[in-house]
Specification:
single chain, alpha+beta
Length: 279
């Protein structure tokens, strides 16, 4: 199935998400997944097609240029037409491309938590699915400088507040989380002994995870280290916040287990509440 066929099978709302690269939804988890999973399938097909289309488009352009010098009009028209179609499809797949954070992190996390979410309560979800290094996410570009063999080094920083979600779980717990990527892009250029310029780009990413949970005291008891904290809740709930930083040297999406384990760590500190005598 090609990318155009998959795209045409999407609904109007799904196509709008691909266009805007933004998600602002407030729906039960099953409705949410029913809307988002076809988007992930379309994004996967587009990613698989883009490289092939780009190579074929390039070959078609070269072939058309060669034929233009031969004077063979009919073959030139046919090759140019094919190259045009390939080019349109190639740029179309770029236009609808979503950040890999969606397919490799957000959707797996929501799928894993599905059984824990209260099916009757809405999940509040906000996603920014522009590329992590989109121009709008840039916070600074430092002046070029020299370093070692590199005569030109440019550092750019980006902040990507790309995921926020909150939901009520089947046990009554209120869960919310935020994911933010802080990215440093370093572009370095040097001149080799043969006089040729070579450039490379390196990435440093720090992902900040913040999880907030409010657990019902009639359902859970917490370890003494939690209950001794006066800021850890009220008469009805234990309110806890957990944070984690994960560093990497690429723009690859974060492993979903990082967030899932952070939530699980809180539940590992719980036990069944002790009933008072006569209760």
């Amino acid at each position: 199935m090609n990318v155009w066929t998959v795209y045409r099978s999407l609904g109007a709302e799904q196509k709008q998400i691909l266009k805007d690269k933004k998600v602002e939804l407030n729906r039960p988890i099953d409705e949410l997944l029913a809307l988002l999973k076809p988007l992930a399938a379309c994004d996967k097909v587009a990613d698989q097609s883009r490289k092939k289309l780009g190579c074929s488009f390039g070959v078609g352009i070269v072939a058309a240029i060669v034929l233009a010098f031969t004077g063979l009009l009919i073959p030139l028209v046919l090759v140019a037409a094919v190259a045009l179609v390939l080019g349109v499809l190639y740029f179309f797949t770029r236009k609808i491309d979503l950040s890999n954070n969606f397919r490799d992190f957000a959707l797996p996390v929501l799928t894993v938590f599905r059984e824990d979410f209260d099916p009757a309560k809405p999940v509040h979800l906000r996603l920014n699915l522009d590329p992590p290094t989109a121009k709008a996410k840039m916070t600074a570009q430092l002046p070029a400088y020299k370093k070692g063999v590199y005569h030109k080094v440019i550092d750019k920083t980006y902040v990507d507040h790309w995921m926020t979600a909150s939901a009520v779980l089947v046990d009554g717990t209120k869960l919310s989380w935020n994911v933010t990527d802080n990215i440093l892009v370093r572009e370095k250029t040097k001149k080799n002994p043969r006089g040729k310029y070579k450039s490379k780009t390196k990435y440093k990413k720090k992902t900040e995870l913040q999880v907030d949970l409010a657990l019902r005291k009639k359902t859970y008891a917490m370890t003494p280290s939690v209950t001794s904290d006066p800021a850890a809740g009220d008469d009805k709930r234990y309110k806890l916040e957990r944070e984690r930083e994960v560093r990497s040297a690429s723009l690859d999406p974060l492993d979903p287990k990082e967030l899932i384990d952070l939530v699980a760590d809180v539940y590992r500190q719980t036990s069944k509440p002790v009933k008072e005598a006569g209760a």
